Every structure is written in C-alpha cells, then in structure tokens.
Amino acid sequence: MGEEKKILLCGKVCAYLTCRLYGNPISNYYSCLLERRSLFFGWVSIKHCSNARRFSMGTFKIEGVTHWSIPVNNLKESEDFYGGLLGLKAVGRLNNNVMSCFNIGDHNILLCEREKPQDKNTVEERVHHSFTVSAEGFVQACKTLHEKKIPIVELEYRAKGYFTGRELYFHDPSGNRLEIRDPTWKKGMPEPPYEEIVKSQAKLALQRSGRTKLCLSTSAFSSQKRVSGS
Predict the structure, then answer these.
(1) Which of 44, 194, 200, 212 suits 24 as a labelling partner, its CA being 20 to 30 A distant?
(2) Same domain for 203 and 141?
(3) What is the distance between the alpha carbons of residues 223 and 225, in angstroms, rounded to a whole number?
(4) What is the total count of domains within the chain?
(5) Which residues lie closer than 8 Å to 121 by C-beta, 6 or more apart?
(6) How far, in whole angstroms, is CA 199 from its chain's centroid?
(7) For residue 222, what pLDDT is reported?
(8) Which structural domain, as residue segments, surrounds residue 12?
(9) H or E, element range at 117
(10) First to last CA, the chain
(11) pLDDT cut 70: percent of the chain above it
(12) Phi/psi zone of residue 125: left (φ > 0), alpha (ψ -120 to 50 degrees), beta?
C-alpha cells in the first residue's frame, strides 16, 4: 500500500472514531481527551494527504531544464552586459537572430529580444534571476558594478530561509532585476555595507599595486647593482 493510501486510510479511521465518539455522550475526562485527540489527528492526516496528492500527482515526469529565458529590449546591448560584464559564456545567436544563448554551469540562458521595448520602470520587481558566486567573486562583483556605475537596488544579508547568504540586487539594461548571491556567508559573520565592500576592495588593489611597484623597484636596483659590480 502506497504512503498516500496509508495516510488516507488513517484519516478515515480517525474520522470514524470521531463520529462514534460524537454519537455517544462523553461521560468522563478521558473520553473528552480521546475525542479531541481523534479530531486533531483526523484533521492532520487528511490535511497531509491532501497536500501530498497536490504535489505528487503529476501527469508526466520532467527530466531537466533545457533553458531559461530573459526578455530584453536590445539584444546587442544585453549580449555585452551578460557576456562582457557578468562573464557568462556566449554560445551564439539562434537562427531567428532575435535570441542569443549563454551558458553558465549546467544552465543555458536565452536572451530574447522583445518585439516592442518595454519601459524599464514597469518591470515586475519580484521576478528576478539569481546567479551564485564565491566569496571572492561577490566582492569582485561589487567592485565591477561600482566601476561601471550600475546602481545597486539592495544588499541583503539573509540569515534565515531556504536561500541563505549575502545577496546583491541590481538591474540589467532592460530593467530585469538580477541577483548575485554568495552562499558562503553565514549568520554571525560581518555585514559591511556596499560602500565599505567597494572601499576595502579598492584599498586591497592599491596595496597590491604598491607591492608590485616595490618589487619592480627592488628588481631594478638589484640589476643595476650587478651591472655596477661587474
């Protein structure tokens, strides 16, 4: 007997016991407890069975995802954004020349040019596309977006829920809401604001540049010393 049938049978038995108890007068405290218990478990069993049926009774089985589609206003502009800025691998345009395919990991993403451009301000804000990055990639993304002067919608540190981590939201040229997510961030870790992340990255780049110049100067001095000694 399947799990769903077992749950349904349990619900029917509990419901039957409940009806029997309702038909007889409750004479003592224990009968009252039994009645309430039967009512509760009968409701839980039937509720659980209903949810199980709703999610498990598919008409066919999906094996995987072929691609996701993102509508854009200008295909060339969007190709430069997703390929050049976000670093997605360009696969090429489809034969209709109004769709361009990009690849990231096991996912294919189609940029589909709209027949009529849509106002960026009318795009649904709850609909968004999320990309996963490493901790280093997240910091680098903040730096890149800042350098390209792309406005940031929100930086969120999500400690609870299904998708935890730190999340950076912004828009593509067509107004689509995008998310860069670093799942390595955990509750209790530092929560610096966006500006601080950008400044720390700039400071680190400056330090690296200084060390490089120092190494070059030291190398040049050593070479000059060897020439003088000879």
Answers:
(1) 44
(2) yes
(3) 5
(4) 3
(5) 175
(6) 25
(7) 52
(8) 3-56
(9) none
(10) 93
(11) 62
(12) alpha
